[in-house]
Amino acid sequence: MRGGVDANTRRPDQFSFKDHGSATDSFRASLRAIQKKHDWAAELLKNIDSAEFRKEEKLLRQSVDRLTRKRSHTIAGFADKQSDRLVRDTLVTNTTILREGNRILGDLTIDKLSSIQTHAEQISSSSSSSLRLKTPSISSESEEDNRSSIPFPRAPASKNQPLVVNPPCTEETPLKGLVTLKEDNPAEEQAKFKDTVGAFGCLNQPTTWKSTDGTIDLLSTFTSFLARRPRGPFIEHEYVADLSEGASFLNSLSGEEFSVALESQPATPLLVTNWSTVTEVFDRVLAPEFGFEEAYLAARKESMLDPVAEFVHSVLYSFGTYLQVDKSIPHSLNEREAFADITWPIIRGALRLAGIASRYLEVPIQGVDERKNAHRNLINEPKAHTHFADGVGLLDGGQAYLAEASVLFSPDPRKRHIDEYKLKRALRDTLISQIRRIAEESVPPSGTSVFGSTSFADKTKYYRLDFCGAFRLVQVGSMTVPITDSNFGGRMRRCLTSALDFAALIMQEKKQREGARDATMKERHEFARACTKIVRTTASPAAKIKKPQE
């Protein structure tokens, strides 16, 4: 011991692959020892020996060097230096491969990693029988939007449990920066969430999700699905039952459950109920055979005293910035240009017809801000940064609609997954925020909802989220914006119809809130107490709390 510190314990900046030679050799040795017992080990060994993997080895080593310099952790040493190197390299290599080499190595499950680690321990013990593997630990200092490129393995809860490593980034979860590093205790989390369910019940929200005859309990189905879901950046771990297009939970339902899940949503109001001239204006301006020029000329002939005609004209005027000059939208538009000139005029115009105020371009999300700072003492602790939305819709000053968008052409597929995860989690925070806001003066209407949209390339999906014992998210519509002059009239008509259907749902929510009964003072106290019991449910770790400098 030197100065109270174990001589075998090394600082992160002293540890790298350069110190220990080829770490992949020990990893290969572990795989060879178990390849006869496990078919996946033989396949994995074959992939590691490929030329493509050797090209990646330099990148893997550089990544671990960056990791060990960045993370404030210590790695316990061993009495025997050779065993020390072997096991250390094996652990770090396994973790690195899991994140950076997933394209080559495929899906390494926790069980597979545990098998490899067990063999590494056996190799270690053969050199020194008195050695005992100690796993590295990390602090919970990572930000919620952690930007570390590689998650370091988390210390297990007990010595007998295998090392826990975040799952690899796959097509379903390419959420770099959203991986949780906290200790996972699903049973404890579910117990805490029961308090949230009780709080929502006190706030006049439904806490059951069953078919009309009560034979199908979708809440129990979701609970079972959640128990089987691997830990990682899945929106279900935020207690959001995702019923959007292609969602894993929706696809896991049986035929009867599928029908019940989608039939449990309120019907979309007829457009003619809110805007009597919509069909006539669309027939005159957006005929299927019209190109942009014909549609725009017809829109200019309409009376701007008709709000529907004004809406159509405003959208076509924005498209005319590009289509009057060329026959297609330029591929060079950046994200903000495409959203502001193409997608947002449609959504904003529909919201305006519905009497919904809106803002756009990097608007702070109130619900996320409240959630991230709920447990902070802002007198002596810094305020955590909130997330930002590309667009919002406002009801009585509160945010009831959030929008996320990407570039119109050749977007990064990873951004779609990240935006959808971010939007769905933010909608959960927004619903909690909105119910708290309503409960300050009124009894929150049963089934209070918030809304959102994600725009990826030329397609926009519309969502509605409410609470029914879990946060229930349903895709209520979609639209595909026309980006060329071909069949412009018919495609734009479908696009505007979908936007108006979505706006009609928000307008229906607005009317429901306006009709809410005023709460008595006793009810306000009960609501305020219930709001304090809505626990924070995010699966991401909390940001480090720093004391301000004096």
TrEMBL record:
Lineage top rank: taxon: Eukaryota
Extent of Low complexity compositional bias: 124-140
Biased composition (Basic and acidic residues): 8-22
Annotated region (Disordered), positions in chain: 1-22, 124-170
Protein name: Uncharacterized protein
Native organism taxonomy: Eukaryota, Fungi, Fungi incertae sedis, Mucoromycota, Mortierellomycotina
